[in-house]
Each structure stands twice: as C-alpha cells, then as structure tokens.
Inverse folding.
C-alpha cells in the first residue's frame, strides 16, 4: 500500500459500532438528523470542502449513481465543515440533489464523533460510512484526501446489507 | 486506514461481441477506457490514445465504454447515445472521433450534423436519439464502470486492472509495453 503515515493514523469507527446521532442544517431553514432515517440505510460522505476539485468530481459521481443507491432504499448525505450558504451555492452550481450537511458549529463536531476530523487543517477526511437501518455502522472507508474513492465500495456494502437483511 | 480494501478490476470482461473494439482480439494488451465525450480530460486523452495505438499497432487492443457524468456534463448522455446510434449503423469509431474532436459542440443539432457527415440513415438516427433506444446500453457501461471502481473520467484499465498512473503519452506507453513484457514473462 502507498498510504502515508498520516493516513494510517486515521481509524474511522468500525463495523458494528453504533453510529453517533447528529442533527445538522441542510438548508437555512431545515435540519437533518441521522435518526430520521432509521429503517433505511444511510450513506454518509465526509468530504474536505465544497468547491475543491476532487470533492466536486466525487459528489458529481454520487449524484450520477444516486438511482442505484435509491435502488437499495439508501439515503445519501454529504457532510463537510462548510456553512450552509456555501453548501447551497455549491449544490446549485454542481447540480447536486441530495442533502449537504453543515458540520459548522461547533465546527467539525460530527466529523470528530466519526473520528475523521483533520485538526491540522480544520477539515474532515474524505471518508465514507454505510450505516444500516438500525443505525449501526456496517462499513467505513477513509480515502487519501486527494483521491476520489469512487462508488463501488458503497454499492458493495449496500449489497452486503441487503443480503444480511434477506437471510 | 481503511476497514476494507479491494482491488479495482474490470468487473465486466471485454466482449468482442458487445464492446467497441479496435485492434486484434489476441493482442497481448487490452486498454479499456471509461470516458465521457464532454469531459475535457477525456478530450486531452483522446489524441494520446491514438498515438499509443499508432506506436503499438496490433499489439494493442483498445476498448471504449461510456461513462457520462451528466451532473457535470449536460450533453454527455446524448453524445454517448449518438455514438451508440452510429454503432447501430456500423459507424461507432468515426462518431467517437468526431465527438472528441468537437467536444464543445455536442448539442442535438451538432450531433445530427455529425450523423449526416458520416452518411448515417438520419431517420433511424433521429428516432434512436428521440426514443433513447441506446440509453440502456450506455447505462450498462456506466454501471459496469461504477462497479469496477471508475471514480472519474477518463479511467483506464490495462489488462483488466485499473491504471492509476498518468495518461501522459510516454507514461501510458511505457505501462502498456510493460504489460506486453509481463505477458511474455
């Protein structure tokens, strides 16, 4: 592996952990909590910041893959330390039609709870979580910050959830 | 560290029947590109792939699959369907080339102009696009890419394994020659 020491220090919450609940703004007059999606899987996408090139590509890809996520009845949530106004402009500019949550005040609190806050630069890791219908982490992945992790890992995790659910 | 690691490999193997292929079926190296006709990076890679093909001749097989990211590129899906509509009339590669050579002109009228230029049956071409006859094929390509770890365009696979290095000419060419050598090895 070519991961650096910095990346190796990051260990997200592992499968089987209860996902910390949160309630964050998704729009100036709207909040979103994890608990409201109980009963269906949640894909939680931590990304370092609106507007940065890799984030944009990654979220554009997830928007394009959204119908597949919905096929698993999963809810996609993006989350960064940016404020709600930045999120709103970013979503409009990039045609993103899923909630972007503002982990803004206290800054990075949710990222910290999910152990993916980057204290060095005040952003979060590029990290993926798949949380099951009961609010339990079933898959987590931290990508090097400059690397778009794609969507295959998420789909695989959702498939595994569906198999467990069926058996 | 991640809790799960996986290797990005091509989940849908190359099929001579299904795929758009240039070069011999028994070439020692197969280069698969997942691309988007409106993506400027794919446009930059287009002449490089051509040069690598010129250099390697029959030792290289090249496959193009669609990965339109419509979120960023509003004309990409229709362009991909236009390429498939051309394919239905036996003219995939000439359309592929025209689209990459005119990336900023991919509106419906432009696409029809390219069809005309290639001498396609326009009635059928128009109907294919209007009824999105080839959308399922484009989507199948897209999904196979997602499942293979495509994380942006262009993404290349060399003999089925994702190629994460630069697609600058000398780097890509060296990697492909390396793959030829390892086949012999």
């Amino acid at each position: 592996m070519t991961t650096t020491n910095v990346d190796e220090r990051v260990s997200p919450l592992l499968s089987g952990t209860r996902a910390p609940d949160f309630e964050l703004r998704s729009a100036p007059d709207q909040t979103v909590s994890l608990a409201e999606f109980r009963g269906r899987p949640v894909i939680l996408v931590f990304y370092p910041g609106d507007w940065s090139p890799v984030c944009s590509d990654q979220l554009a890809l997830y928007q394009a893959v959204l119908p597949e996520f919905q096929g698993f009845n999963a809810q996609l949530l993006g989350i960064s330390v940016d404020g709600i106004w930045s999120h709103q402009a970013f979503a409009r500019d990039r045609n993103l039609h899923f909630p972007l949550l503002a982990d803004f005040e206290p800054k990075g609190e949710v990222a910290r709870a999910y152990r993916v806050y980057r204290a060095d630069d005040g952003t979060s890791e590029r990290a993926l979580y798949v949380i099951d219908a009961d609010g339990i982490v079933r898959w987590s992945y931290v990508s090097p910050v400059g690397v778009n992790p794609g969507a295959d890992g998420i789909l695989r995790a959702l498939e595994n959830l569906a198999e467990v659910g069926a058996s | 560290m991640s809790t799960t690691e996986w290797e990005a490999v091509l989940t849908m193997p190359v099929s001579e029947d299904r795929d758009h292929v240039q070069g011999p079926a028994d070439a020692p190296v197969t280069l698969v590109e997942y691309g988007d006709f409106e993506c400027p990076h794919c446009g930059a890679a287009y002449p490089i792939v051509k040069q690598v093909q010129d250099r390697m001749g029959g030792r290289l097989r090249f496959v193009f699959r669609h990965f339109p990211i419509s979120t960023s590129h509003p004309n990409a899906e229709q362009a991909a369907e236009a390429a498939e509509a051309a394919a239905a009339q036996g003219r995939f590669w000439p359309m592929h080339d025209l689209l990459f050579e005119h990336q900023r002109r991919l509106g419906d009228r432009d696409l029809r102009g390219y069809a005309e230029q290639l001498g396609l049956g326009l009635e059928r071409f128009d109907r294919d696009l209007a009824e999105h006859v080839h959308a399922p094929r484009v989507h199948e390509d897209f999904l196979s890419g997602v499942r293979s770890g495509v994380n942006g365009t262009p993404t290349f696979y060399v003999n089925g394994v994702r190629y994460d290095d630069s697609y600058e000419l000398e780097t890509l060419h060296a990697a492909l020659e390396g793959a030829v050598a390892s086949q012999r090895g």
